[in-house]
Amino acid sequence: MPPKETVWEIEDQTRAKHAILRSYLGAWFPIMGRSPGTDRLLFIDGFAGPGKYADGSPGSPLIALDVLLNHSNVNPNCRYYFVFNENDPARHESLVQELESREATRPLPQNVEVVTERGEFVDLVRDITDDGKRLIPLFAFIDPFGYKAVPLDSLESLLSSPGSEVLAYLDVRSPLRFAGKGLVDDHFEALFGSDQFLDAPPPGAPGRAKFFTDVYCDALVSRVGFRYTWSFLMRNARKQPLYALVYATRNLKGLEVMKDAMWKVAPDGSYSFVASRGGQQVLLGGDDTSVEILETQLMARFAGSTVPIEKVREFVLVDTDFRLGILKRRTLSPMQRRGLISTNQPRRGIFPDGTLVTFH
């Protein structure tokens, strides 16, 4: 349920979510802004909120703006457009005031433009896509309250262009409780884009939350046309699932950067966050960063074959829970010293592009 207040207290899960967003945009703005043929970028916050929290912490619109304006490596020749949408009148007014206050002390550069909208997300998408033109490369942050405001049809319309990416809130707590009971299944069908959610394990069964997340990720691939997805589960202090952050992209580099951003929040490799107990942050999961796990997965996949290092990298990114930062020095180099792998490089311990890796 959305808060009744215009401005409310920030929660631990929200801080974690914002840390992921901030870290990812810190790479997305400079990488995309300097990509060949790209001279314009668009950031959309579909549920922008009031711009701040009760303790003064910035909301997602100001976080996104600050990342760009404070970055030392963005392209001054690229134009950056921000669209912040908030349907609630009081929160929209608060957001406008926050933005105006920021701009009064720090005017926007000429290559940065901010637009605030007030309306339903589905109407925003319709307005943006109605003319049939292909959208410029965009990153959409879709963070609603609940499960009714973002039908998959809207995401399909908004995110069909090759340069689009999304970080979306997926309410898993509601389908955990209500899916299949016939009460709000029509809303779930709009959310997931099909009735596949009805095939979930029964209530209380392990894997039920993951099932709903997987159905959503699969729909982003099959319906919207994304190639890669990744998710991050937010839990309350009792470790109960609340919602998943679902990321989708067509770019392998984007997946690499997002996994790094998520690992900074959950360095145990669990891709989960548990809210604090008594003011102390708790991370879910065990020592999943052990390289022994990754070694086992690599040998199971590639034993007896010689493959390019690029194929190894893609496997780690797409098919394991690990980030690339631990692949070479912490995993492949020790494997090479123990004779588990060999390469065509004259020196041990280096794995540049073009390296052929033989798994014995």
Task: Describe the 3D structure.
- The structure is a single chain.
- This protein has 360 residues and is an alpha/beta fold.
- Helix content is 40%, strand content 19%.
- It has helices at residues 12-33, 60-69, 89-105, 121-129, 152-158, 173-178, 185-192, 208-224, 252-265, 291-302, 309-319, 328-337; strands spanning 40-45, 79-85, 112-117, 138-142, 164-171, 228-235, 241-249, 272-277, 280-282, 306-308, 341-343, 356-359.
- The strands form two sheets. A nine-stranded mixed beta sheet has the order 3-2-1-4-5-7-6-8-9. A three-stranded antiparallel beta sheet has the order 10-12-11.
- Strand 8 (272-277) and strand 9 form a beta hairpin.
- Helix 1 (12-33) packs parallel to helix 2 (60-69) and helix 5 (152-158) packs across helix 8 (208-224).
- The longest helix is centred in the N-terminal third of the chain and has 22 residues, at 12-33.
- The N and C termini lie far apart (55 Å).
- Residues 277-288 have low confidence and may be disordered.
Report strand %.
Answer: 15-25%
Percentage of residues in helical conformation: 25-40%
Question: What does the overall shape look like?
Answer: globular
Class computed from helices, strands and strand pairing: alpha/beta
SSE arrangement, N to C: HEHEHEHEHEHHHEEHEEHEHHEE
Q: What value does the Rg take, in angstroms?
A: 22 Å
